[in-house]
Write a structure and sequence with these properties.
- The chain is an alpha/beta fold and about 325 residues long.
- It has 2 domains: about 180 residues, FAD/NAD(P)-binding domain (3-Layer(bba) Sandwich); about 120 residues, FAD/NAD(P)-binding domain (3-Layer(bba) Sandwich).
- It is about 20% helix and about 25% strand.
- It contains 6 helices and 17 strands.
- Strands 1, 2, 3, 4, 5, 6 and 17 form a 7-stranded mixed β-sheet that branches. A 5-stranded parallel β-sheet has the order 8-15-9-10-11.
- A hairpin with a 5-residue loop joins strand 4 and strand 5.
- The radius of gyration is 21 Å and the shape is elongated.
- About 45% of the residues are buried.
- The mean pLDDT is about 95.
């Protein structure tokens, strides 16, 4: 069985940045970029325009950015497999990493987990892949809110927690009006966040409402809502729908062997990327539920590669 100094699971901004740094340190990393799971390229693969990644004053298409990162990692010697990881056995070192599609297994002296997190969204007509997802339907106001199609238009945020309020307040910088669609008659958000939303002149909360569908042509033009109290559906004009109902970190393949928090995010030692298992490191959204940006993911990928290099050096590898 082939043995590698470092295996990186995931090929989004975190995984590929880790691969670049690790390859330049002559660790010859093997990167599982994903095949079916959606890990390959991360969430940027479904983003049409990225305007907040440094170095691209005119913006850059998400897939183009990821392809450039991929080529840069390969230039320095990283090997990238178009395959998922079915499981990682970290009960003893070297670790055992099993591929999902071709059923290949590798031994690894260290592992970086950079599998990201998937934004939760409602399974309603118009919001699915191939419909209006990333054409007016998104799950990141900070990433997409400043795009021209949302400026001075009416936008809808789905959710009722702190994240939904934060997204709504951020969007008021660009929108003419922001509606928060919440299925209950009371927000789940903290009192201070709730008060900010209630007092904001550009925000209106649609109590006891749920999203039933999204409509449009080339982009979103309207939403279908249901008033649960009156049991009737209403159609409203809209330029954008922002889901703010949480994320699901991609950690199931670890089988609970590495410590996570109550939401499933990998727990790292503050100021590092070290997890509860020596030799296993975590980078990007799989351990970050606060910032969730491409640039912060890339930064943590750099950290993970440096942490892994130091670990391997200390082990005499």
């Amino acid at each position: 069985m082939e043995r590698r100094k470092l295996i990186i699971v995931g090929a989004g901004p975190a995984g590929l940045t880790a691969a670049i740094y690790a390859a330049r340190a002559y660790l010859a990393p093997l990167v599982f970029e994903g095949f079916i799971s959606g890990v390959a390229g991360g969430q940027l693969m479904t983003t049409t325009e990225v305007e907040n990644f440094p170095g691209f004053p005119q913006g850059v298409a998400g897939p183009s950015l990821m392809e450039a990162m991929r080529k840069q990692a390969e230039r320095f010697g990283a090997e990238i497999l178009p395959e998922d990881v079915s499981s990682v056995d970290v009960t003893q070192r070297p670790f055992l990493v099993r591929g999902a599609q071709k059923k290949r297994s590798f031994m690894a002296d260290s592992v970086i987990v950079a599998t990201g997190a998937v934004a939760k969204r409602l399974d309603v007509p118009g919001a699915r892949d191939g419909e209006f997802w990333q054409r007016g339907v998104t799950a990141c106001a900070i990433c997409d809110g400043a795009l021209p199609l949302f400026r001075d238009r009416e936008l809808y945020v789905i959710g009722g927690g702190d994240t939904a309020i934060e997204e709504a307040i951020f969007l008021t910088k660009y929108a003419s009006k922001v509606y928060i669609v919440h299925r209950r008659d009371k927000l789940r958000a903290s009192k201070i966040m709730s008060q900010q939303a209630l007092k904001h002149p550009k925000i209106e909360i649609l109590w006891n409402h749920v999203l039933k569908g999204v409509e449009g042509d080339a982009v979103v033009t309207g939403v279908n809502l249901e008033n649960l109290a009156e049991r009737k559906e209403v159609k409203r004009s809209a330029a954008g729908v922002f889901f703010a109902i949480g994320h699901s970190p991609n950690t199931k393949f670890l089988g609970g062997q590495v410590e996570t928090d109550d939401q499933g995010y990998l727990v790292v030692e503050p100021g590092t990327t070290r997890t509860s298992v020596e030799g296993v490191f975590a980078a990007g959204d799989v351990q970050d539920k606060i910032y969730r940006q491409a640039v912060s993911a890339a930064g943590s990928g750099c950290m993970a590669a440096l942490d892994a290099e130091r670990f391997l050096t200390a082990q005499g590898i």
